[in-house]
């Protein structure tokens, strides 16, 4: 299994990624169709915030190569009740479900229990209530469902940087512990 983050990946890793039995990508899938390969089993799409709002406004969203190639989709955030999504909507789950369902491909929504577990795992390295990234949530879900004696997940393109609301240092430390335990292999992003 290969998971492909969105950090710039200057090295050509396409063959290593495309040879995996399962390829998981995120959001705009940096390098897709080029240096990070052209396979996508699961595409995780952040279903809260401005990025999803922009995608929903794009009439050609379903025509994007990574959307067309995805065999299934993962929405990392549980659906908010309508009254919790006011006055300014932040949860776009209903709208993206309506957009993706006609494709006929499976759509998986990660449960709140996974979010609670993720926050618990990241709490020691952060202050306040941590807000896990999509990459962290999906990787955690994959590891929880994976037999402990399975080959390590190959993680490419994880730079642990981006939106300042995520606990990047705590996430990096968790990935490093998972690597030390033999559960995943974190391929360094090199410049």
Describe the structure.
The protein has helices at 14-18, 50-57, 65-69, 93-100, 112-122, 134-144, 168-180; strands at residues 2-4, 23-26, 42-44, 72-75, 107-109, 153-156, 184-186. It is an alpha/beta fold. The protein has a single domain (2-186), classed as Glycosyl transferase family 29 (sialyltransferase cstii, chain A, Alpha-Beta Complex). It has a seven-stranded parallel sheet with strand order 5-4-3-2-1-6-7, sandwiched between helices. Strand 1 (2-4), helix 1 (14-18) and strand 2 (23-26) form a beta-alpha-beta unit. It is globular, with a radius of gyration of 16 Å. The two termini are 24 Å apart.
Q: Biggest β-sheet: count, sense, barrel?
A: 7 strands, parallel
CATH architectural type? Alpha-Beta Complex
What would you give as the CATH superfamily? Glycosyl transferase family 29
Sketch the topology as an H/E string, one letter per element. Answer: EHEEHHEHEHHEHE
Tally the helices: what do you get? 7
Strand arrangement within the widest β-sheet reads: 5-4-3-2-1-6-7
Q: What would CATH call the class?
A: Alpha Beta
Radius of gyration: 16 Å
Structural class: alpha/beta
DSSP strand count: 7
CATH fold call: sialyltransferase cstii, chain A
InterPro entries: GT29-like_sf
């Amino acid at each position: 299994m290969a998971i492909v983050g969105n950090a710039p990946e200057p090295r050509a890793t396409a063959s290593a990624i495309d040879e995996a039995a399962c390829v998981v990508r995120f959001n705009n899938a940096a390098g897709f169709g080029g240096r990070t390969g052209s396979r996508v089993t699961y595409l995780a799409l952040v279903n809260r915030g401005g990025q999803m709002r922009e995608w929903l406004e794009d009439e050609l969203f379903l025509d994007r190569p990574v959307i067309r190639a995805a065999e299934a989709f993962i929405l990392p955030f549980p659906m908010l009740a309508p009254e919790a999504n006011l006055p300014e909507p932040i949860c776009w789950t209903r709208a993206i479900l309506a957009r993706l369902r006609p494709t006929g491909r499976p759509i998986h929504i990660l449960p709140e229990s996974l979010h609670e577990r993720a926050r618990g795992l990241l709490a020691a390295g952060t202050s306040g209530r941590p807000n896990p990234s999509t990459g962290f949530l999906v990787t955690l879900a994959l590891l929880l469902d994976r037999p402990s004696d399975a080959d390590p997940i190959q993680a490419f393109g994880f730079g642990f940087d981006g939106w300042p609301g995520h606990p990047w240092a705590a996430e990096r430390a968790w990935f490093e512990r998972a690597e030390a335990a033999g559960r995943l292999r974190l391929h360094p992003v090199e410049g």
